[in-house]
Write a structure and sequence with these properties.
The chain has 326 residues and is of the alpha+beta class. The chain has six helices and 19 strands. It has helices at residues 109-127, 155-164, 198-203, 256-265, 279-295, 310-323; strands spanning 26-30, 33-37, 45-46, 54-58, 72-76, 80-85, 89-94, 98-103, 131-140, 143-148, 168-178, 186-188, 193-197, 209-211, 221-226, 235-236, 239-246, 250-253, 297-304. The strands form three sheets. Strands 3-1-2-4-8-7-6-5 form an eight-stranded mixed β-sheet, with helices on one face. The radius of gyration is 19 Å and the shape is globular. 45% of the residues are buried.
């Protein structure tokens, strides 16, 4: 089964679907950007027509497509980045402000949006100078909690439990940080949607939300579109929690020597490999990760196994944030 945290190559396993939505240009707001898109993106918040920061178009891309055997083709150049999945389509990012898409035959907008709002958007944000983490983030009374961890660690589940406790979602899966002022890293709000496995969604509903149709039978996480409980404003990055399973809820601060490698490990661009970090971007990325590790508390958070005990972790997180930096 495939989840929102699956490796990039997992998009190759999706069978083709039929039907295409209309190609009228629509305007949306996400990550502080105005997005004009020919792909219908109900996951995002609609916006009034305006000068677009990012333009998303549909049309042919004059680059080789991956074969069924090769499955993927990723190419990274200084001014453009190309990501193609045989079963979904090809995506060409240019100058951090344009995404061209050539869908695979029979693929509709709902399936296109899955990689578009995940790895493709993450790479575009990285190219625009943001530090992008593969994580979820919650706003808590002017502070924030960023949840990182390996697949199955419970990032979205913990974030959903925080929402149920009265806090607000900042972003799920793709966390973008504005490092313009290195002393005050800020989390840029994404869009009001969180992906949850069926058992987590049934046990800890994030509140008033619309459960969107399943993207594809091979994708086991359902998309929950929040009608509230979403922060529209940037929030200071306060604490990073690296989730692990444990017998009881526990928070342990990580020393700087361990914090930096953890941030690098869960930064989104590292999923693409060294080719996605040419020399100038590699230097900037390492500097941003070091700034974050130096200025934001990084902790290991043990989350008890079992959804019935997730409240223990929520209480501990609230107390830890209220107490300030370790």
């Amino acid at each position: 089964m495939m989840s929102g945290n699956a490796p990039l190559a997992a998009y190759n396993d999706l069978p083709l679907r039929h039907g295409r939505a209309a190609r009228d240009r629509r305007f949306y707001r996400a990550y502080g950007l105005t997005i004009a898109s020919e792909v219908t993106l109900p996951e995002l918040e609609p916006a009034a027509p305006a000068a677009a920061d990012v333009l998303i178009t549909i049309g042919p891309i004059d680059l080789p497509k991956p074969s069924l055997e090769a499955a993927t083709d990723f190419r990274f150049e200084p001014d453009r980045q190309y990501l193609a999945w045989h079963a979904v389509g090809a995506f060409l990012i240019t100058d951090g402000c344009r995404i061209e898409i050539e869908p695979a035959p029979g693929v509709d907008d709902t399936l296109i949006a899955f990689p578009l709002l995940g790895p493709v958007m993450a790479l575009l944000l990285h190219r625009r100078g943001l530090l992008v983490l593969h994580a979820s983030a919650i706003a808590v009374a002017g502070s924030s909690a960023i949840f990182m961890g390996d697949k199955g660690a419970g990032k979205s589940t913990t974030a959903s439990a925080m929402i149920r406790a009265g806090h607000e979602l900042l972003t799920d899966d793709v966390v973008a940080l504005d490092m313009t002022n290195p002393n005050h890293p800020m989390i840029v709000p994404g869009f009001p949607q969180i992906k949850l496995a069926a058992d987590a969604a049934a046990a800890i509903s994030p509140g008033e939300a619309e459960v969107r149709p399943q993207v594809h039978p091979a994708i086991d996480k359902m998309q929950h579109r929040l009608h509230g409980a979403f922060s529209h404003a940037k929030v200071p990055a306060t604490r990073i929690y690296i989730l692990e399973r444990g017998e009881r809820a526990d928070v342990t601060p990580l020393p700087g020597i361990a914090a930096l490698p953890a941030i690098i490990k869960f930064s989104y661009v590292t999923r693409f490999g060294r080719a996605a970090l040419p020399s100038n971007f590699a230097e900037m990325h390492l500097r941003q990760c070091a700034w974050l590790a130096d200025r934001v508390g990084v902790c290991r958070l043990e989350v008890p196994t079992g959804l019935d005990r997730i409240g223990e972790a929520v209480t501990l997180i609230e107390r830890d944030l209220a107490a300030g930096h370790p």
